[in-house]
């Protein structure tokens, strides 16, 4: 093992890393279901952090025994809290997925840009206003020639 | 005294009983919610006028403060808890349709969680109530069952999920540093354990996390779509009250735990950015609901500027602005119930609904701050207080605030002019501009409240001053929750 790198440090780094990976995933992914999955990863990181905050490396599980000498125990409070946080997290994820099912039924797909576009259009239509962004192709010649078909495919097709 | 718990427990119980009761007997089911909320109002109103000495701390479950969970009740918490129950009653989903039971149950859940947010004295409990309020909100917005409402709910859910991850991370940091989550105990330990980089990071994480609900600058992308798709009554409740409750949590954290200049500066900067972005977006908005949503971001930015002021007068300005915004914004959302669409459609609406147009004008005047309406007094307190500060950042805040007032005047009175213009009486869809009677009545209630506050401005000011002094006193909070200093920590 590299000197100075303890198990504790690795675990804390893992927790923070999971949160960062998750948040980056939420921001960067172009599919709504992937956003939910990324959120799950971030929540796992936060939960790990919470467990670590009360953990002691030289202690046993917090169960009271009828013994003369009581060995040192880990702090049970964060464990109770993390249980609550996990339950809340699962509930919210289930809700998120059920909402996604509805969005898929109504809008036909779950691409982030497409859904945002359709939502804006629907709100504008129900309010009875014209939108700023034109839905049609721009007039006139294109200043740059369009990309060849295969390179447009490789961009993931979410444009 | 323990019946204070009922203001949280009864709505919670009602929320889970309601769908069952509704199946057994619709009459009982329909009355259950309003009765529970009415009882809550009566209970808290009684407390206000009784001779019980506030503040007080109520121990839940028989364990004393640093180890057990406590509710903390001071005048500020009482005021907000009362406002939650009352506004819950006012914004109650009375409309009958096939999912009335679900809506009413979720509304009870939202009220229970909001009351918990106002009263809880424990950081983790605050987190749980916060999530509970979030889930109830998702359900209520999605109950509109339009496709846009689902998409907006999903966006809100993701942002709120990010917020809860950040909050949880902050809580974990605080716990690993101090070993407690009781606010009073934290306040005791904070000067030696949390006034460093780690504490500031934890504060920033919680601020951004809780700030999702408070429409804080970088995490408020959900606001316009949610207010555009949710029912007006729900939007009124969310913009008027839930955002203020999130603000209340941040206030408690600032006063009790993170009383450092950096922590305050972050709030000030984010507030200024919120004002600028919100007001400009509101000026550009073309429909009533999204305009109100953006304007609410701007207003809360102003409240955040007030939050960053160091002394009691700043807290007084914060309270005045918050309550003023609560009354005005909820009233305006009630008007948006009928006038929710494009601003163009409002041309000449004053002829069809003179009361609605008069109310809109009244709200607009007070929001801009025309004397003698209460808005003037609230804004004047903030201006004098900002001008008294020596730091240049506060002067920027003052300039931005004045600029925001100009923009507000511009977009609000553009609408007032439209309402009273006689040019476009040949509108094509008159049925869209019809104000429902219930909404108009509710909006009138807020209008009357506003006028009453104009007359009673002196006693209200004194009352708020007392509340501000009490809320700013961190020592009092610690002494109330933990009368004897505990022997040791965990």
Concise summary:
The complex is a heterodimer of chains A (159) and B (490). Chain A is mainly alpha-helical.
Detailed description of the structure:
- By secondary structure, chain A is mainly α.
- Chain A is built from 5 helices and no strands.
- Chain A is elongated, with a radius of gyration of 25 Å.
- Chain B folds into 2 domains: 1-120; 121-481, no CATH class.
- Chain B is built from 20 helices and 2 strands.
- A two-stranded antiparallel ribbon of chain B has the order 1-2.
- Classes of the chains: A mainly alpha (159), B mainly alpha (490).
- At the A-B interface, helix 1, helix 2, helix 3 and helix 4 of A face helix 5, helix 6, helix 9 and helix 12 of B.
Number of strands of chain B: 2
Integer-rounded radius of gyration of chain A: 25 Å
Sketch the major β-sheet of chain A: none
What is the 3D shape of chain B? Answer: globular
Q: Main β-sheet of chain B: number of strands, strand sense, barrel status? A: 2 strands, antiparallel
Query: What is the CATH topology classification name of the domain at 7-59 and 75-130 in chain A?
Result: Helix Hairpins
- Overall pLDDT of chain B: 84
Q: How do the helices and strands follow one another from N- to C-terminus of chain B? A: HHEEHHHHHHHHHHHHHHHHHH
The first-to-last residue Cα distance of chain B is 29 Å
- Please tell me the CATH architecture of the domain at 7-59 and 75-130 in chain A by its name: Orthogonal Bundle
Decide which structural class fits the backbone of chain A. Answer: mainly alpha
> Low-confidence parts of chain B lasting 5 or more residues at pLDDT below 50?
none
Largest interface: A-B, 47 and 49 residues
- Helicity level of chain A: 55-70%
What is the mean pLDDT of chain A? Answer: 80
């Amino acid at each position: 093992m590299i000197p100075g790198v303890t198990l504790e440090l690795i675990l804390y780094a893992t927790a923070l890393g999971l949160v960062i990976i998750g948040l980056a995933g939420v921001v960067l992914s172009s599919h709504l279901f992937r956003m939910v999955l990324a959120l799950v990863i971030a929540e796992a990181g936060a939960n790990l952090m919470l467990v670590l905050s009360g953990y002691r490396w030289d202690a046993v599980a917090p169960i009271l025994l009828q013994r003369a000498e009581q060995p040192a125990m880990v702090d049970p409070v964060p464990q109770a809290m993390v249980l609550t946080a996990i339950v809340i997290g699962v509930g919210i994820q289930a809700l998120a997925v059920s909402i996604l099912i509805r969005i898929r039924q109504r809008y036909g797909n779950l691409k982030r840009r497409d859904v945002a576009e359709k939502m804006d259009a629907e709100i504008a239509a129900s309010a009875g206003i014209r939108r700023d962004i034109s839905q049609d192709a721009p007039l006139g010649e294109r200043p740059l020639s369009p990309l060849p078909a295969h390179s447009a495919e490789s961009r993931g097709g979410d444009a | 005294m323990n019946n204070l718990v009922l203001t949280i427990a009864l709505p919670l119980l009602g929320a889970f009983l309601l769908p069952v009761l509704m199946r057994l007997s619709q009459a009982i089911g329909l009355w259950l919610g309003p009765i529970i909320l009415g009882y809550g109002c009566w209970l808290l109103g009684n407390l206000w006028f009784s001779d019980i000495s506030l503040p007080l701390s109520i121990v839940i479950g028989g364990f004393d403060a640093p180890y057990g969970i406590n509710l903390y009740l001071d005048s500020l918490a009482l005021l907000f808890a009362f406002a939650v129950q009352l506004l819950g009653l006012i914004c109650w989903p009375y409309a009958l349709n096939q999912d009335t039971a679900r809506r009413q149950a979720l509304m009870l859940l939202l009220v229970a969680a909001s009351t918990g947010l106002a009263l809880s004295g424990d950081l983790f409990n605050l987190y749980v109530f916060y999530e509970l309020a979030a889930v109830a909100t998702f359900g209520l917005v999605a109950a509109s069952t339009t496709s846009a409402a689902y998409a907006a709910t999903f966006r809100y859910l993701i942002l709120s999920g990010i917020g809860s991850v950040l909050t949880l991370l902050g809580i974990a940091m605080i716990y690993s540093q101090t070993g407690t989550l009781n606010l009073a105990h934290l306040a005791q330990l904070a000067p030696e354990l949390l006034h460093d980089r780690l504490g500031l990071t934890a504060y920033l994480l919680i601020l951004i996390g809780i700030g999702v609900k408070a429409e804080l600058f970088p995490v408020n992308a959900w606001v316009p779509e949610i207010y555009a798709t949710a029912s007006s009554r729900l939007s009124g409740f969310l913009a008027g009250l839930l955002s203020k409750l999130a603000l209340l949590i941040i206030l408690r954290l600032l006063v009790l735990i993170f009383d450092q200049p950096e922590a305050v500066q972050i709030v000030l900067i984010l507030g200024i950015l919120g004002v600028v972005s919100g007001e400009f977006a509101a000026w550009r908005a073309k429909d009533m609901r999204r305009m109100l949503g953006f304007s609410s971001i701007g207003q809360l930015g102003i409240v955040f500027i007030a939050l960053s002021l160091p002394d009691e007068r700043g807290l007084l300005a914060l309270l005045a602005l918050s309550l003023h915004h609560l009354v005005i914004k909820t009233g305006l959302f009630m008007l948006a119930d009928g006038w929710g669409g494009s601003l163009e459609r409002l041309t000449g609406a004053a002829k069809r609904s003179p009361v609605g147009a008069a109310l809109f004008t009244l709200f607009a005047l007070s929001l801009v701050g025309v004397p003698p309406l209460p808005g003037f007094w609230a804004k004047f307190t903030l201006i004098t207080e900002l001008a008294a500060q020596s730091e240049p950042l506060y002067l920027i805040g003052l300039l931005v605030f004045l600029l925001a007032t100009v923009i507000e005047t511009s977009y609000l009175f553009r609408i007032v002019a439209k309402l009273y213009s006689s040019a476009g009486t040949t509108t094509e869809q008159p049925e869209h501009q019809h104000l429902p009677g219930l909404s108009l009545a509710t909006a009138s209630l807020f209008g009357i409240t506003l006028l009453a506050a104009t007359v009673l401005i002196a006693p209200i000011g004194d009352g708020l001053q007392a509340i501000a002094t009490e809320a700013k006193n961190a020592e009092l909070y610690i002494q109330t929750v933990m009368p004897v200093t505990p022997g040791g920590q965990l």
